[in-house]
């Protein structure tokens, strides 16, 4: 595997969806790390996250949408008002988030968490 930055960027921009999903991994809170013996998990709609960096630092909310195309996460309560008065979600990169509560209703996610590393 190459270490050249241009090839690393190309890999991210041209990645297929199943790899993009893995790139959307978010750090787990300390309690969840101990509980599931994992450092991070791919973010999913319904998870409760905390913003660690940026204008909305320390904001907590549920994930409303995960944008795999642009590598962004939309969180409820994080919106910005445009000059014409419309409200738009302020998107956040997953590296700036921490999962506080997991949405464990999905059977596939339960399998991922229980799988040995």
How would you portray this structure in words?
Belongs to the universal ribosomal protein uL24 family. It comes from Methanobacterium spitsbergense. This is Large ribosomal subunit protein uL24. The chain is of the alpha+beta class. The protein has a single domain (5-114), classed as SH3 type barrels. It has four helices and eight strands, in the order H-H-E-H-E-E-E-E-E-E-E-H. It has a six-stranded mixed β-sheet. Strands 6-7 form a two-stranded antiparallel ribbon. The longest helix is centred in the N-terminal third of the chain and has 9 residues, at 5-13. The mean pLDDT is 94.
In short:
The protein has 117 residues and is an alpha+beta fold. Helices cover 26% and strands 29% of the residues.
Envelope shape: globular
N-to-C span: 22 Å
Q: Fraction of residues in helices?
A: 25-40%
What is the third-level CATH name, the topology?
SH3 type barrels
Give the C-alpha Rg: 16 Å
Q: What characterizes the major β-sheet?
A: 6 strands, mixed
Count of DSSP E strands? 8
Number of helices: 4
The overall average pLDDT, rounded, is 94
CATH class: Mainly Beta
Corresponding CATH architecture: Roll
Give the percentage of residues in beta strands. 25-35%
Pfam families: KOW, Ribosomal_L26
Subunit structure: Part of the 50S ribosomal subunit.
Protein name: Large ribosomal subunit protein uL24
GO molecular function: rRNA binding; structural constituent of ribosome
